[in-house]
Amino acid sequence: MFYSGFAPTIEEMLLLKHRAGVQMKFIGYFLEDFDQFCVAHYPNESILTKEIGENWIHNSESTSFFHMARRVQTVVHLGSYRALGL
Known about the structure:
- It is built from 4 helices and no strands.
- The protein is an all-alpha fold.
- The two termini are about 20 Å apart.
C-alpha cells in the first residue's frame, strides 16, 4: 500500500505495467521508499517536481552505482507515466 499524494499514480502505473506484462523487478521496493519519503517530506504534494525527484534520489546512504541508478529509473518511470497523462 502507498500513502503519499502519489499513491493513486503509483498504483495505477504498477497496474498498467503489470497488465502489459512489463517486468518491474525491484521497482516495488523503490516505489515504497519513494512513497515513505514523500509522506515524511512532501505530505501535501501529488505533482512530481524536479526538486522532489532529486531530493529522493540523493536521500540514500548507499554509494552503489546500481542502487542510485535504480532510484533514478524509478523517478523516470513515475515521471514518464505522469507525462503521458495516463
